[in-house]
Amino acid sequence: MPQPLDIPVPDLTGKLALVTGASDGVGVEIAARLARAGADILMPVRNPQKGQAAATQIAERTPTSSIRVVPLDLASLDSVAALTARLNDDGRPIDVLIANAGVMSPPARRLTADGFELQLATNHLGHFALIAQLLPLLVEAKAHVTSQVSIAADQGAVNWDDPNWEHGYDPMKAYSSSKIAFGLFAMELQRRSDAAAWGIRSNLSHPGVTPTNLLAAQPGMGRSADTTAVKLIRALSRRGILFGTPSTAALSAVYAATSPDAQGGRLYGPKGFRHLSGLPAEQPMYSRLESEADGGRVWELSERLTGVRVAPLGR
């Protein structure tokens, strides 16, 4: 029987790694691989029962692991503020932050309690607010921050004139828009880190295509049944055809966040056929994520929408 794909990961003993979206799918595999390398794992989750179940699963695989589950709903700015205040009060520097959580293509436009379109809020604005408010802890650790985008960030555009999709909502266009915005933010974070000597390494990863809950039935998001796409992906993934598994899809983010060869301002993803599966490697940067002007524009838009502004930090 062939051995599962894996990559070397540096010893992370004593390091704190925060992984969003770690209660299932690719996220739990990212957290598990970091735990196996010795990292202390911080799992902010929306569903505490799922979070505890995932923590138990990781602990069973790595009995020596240290895992802490804390509440976080990225679609709520109040929830993000509560967690970041708690972590800043704790004062422990964060060495690795992998922004992996996301939602994908609810059939009908859905708004959060803050009044934002759900994908924009969860995939981008929540992560922006999280990272911005944790910046002192990230700077102190000279953290590696990896933002998980998607091959959808290589198509479409940011809906600058209507970021909340009040007119002409399209599920996949809104998804792509949120992922492009998030990718532009991550690239701008690296530029600002370089300019202000923060020491943060900010880069991007994408998992390829793998069977997760993104396209599965989610009644709370208005999707009552699994999509045809996820059924096909599951079937082909089980046969080892074309698509990866959650454990292999996790490797791109793990590599981007931990490898000494991974650099800031770069994109890492599977190197197999059409970058859908396989071991991680550097990828050509998506053209939509290259513009410095758009990076500054999305940063300013994010500050305005969330009310979270990044105060200058000392060198």
Mean of the pLDDT scores? Answer: 89
Order of helices and strands: EHEHEHEHHEHEHHHEEH
Number of strands: 8
Task: Record the strand order, biggest sheet.
Answer: 3-2-1-4-5-6-7-8
Oligomer: single chain
Q: What proportion of the residues form beta strands (DSSP E)?
A: 5-15%
By secondary-structure content and strand pairing, the structural class works out as alpha/beta
Broad shape = globular
Helix content: 40-55%
Main beta-sheet strand count, sense and barrel state: 8 strands, mixed
Low-confidence stretches: 215-219, 221-227, 229-242
CA distance, first residue to last residue: 52 Å
Total of helices:
10
CA-based gyration radius? 18 Å
Describe the structure.
It is a single chain. This protein is α/β, with parallel strands linked by helices and 315 residues long. It is 40% helix and 12% strand. It has an eight-stranded mixed sheet, sandwiched between helices. Helix 6 (171-196) links the parallel strand 5 and strand 6. The protein is globular, with a radius of gyration of 18 Å. It starts with 15 loop residues before the first strand and ends in a 9-residue tail after the last helix.
Element layout with pairings:
Blueprint: E1 16-19, H1 25-36, E2 40-45, H2 48-61, E3 66-71, H3 77-90, E4 96-99, H4 118-133, H5 135-141, E5 144-148, H6 171-196, E6 201-205, H7 228-238, H8 246-249, H9 251-258, E7 267-270, E8 280-283, H10 292-306
Parallel strand pairs: 1-2, 1-4, 2-3, 4-5, 5-6, 6-7
Antiparallel strand pairs: 7-8
Helix pairs in contact: 1-2, 3-4, 4-6, 4-10, 6-10
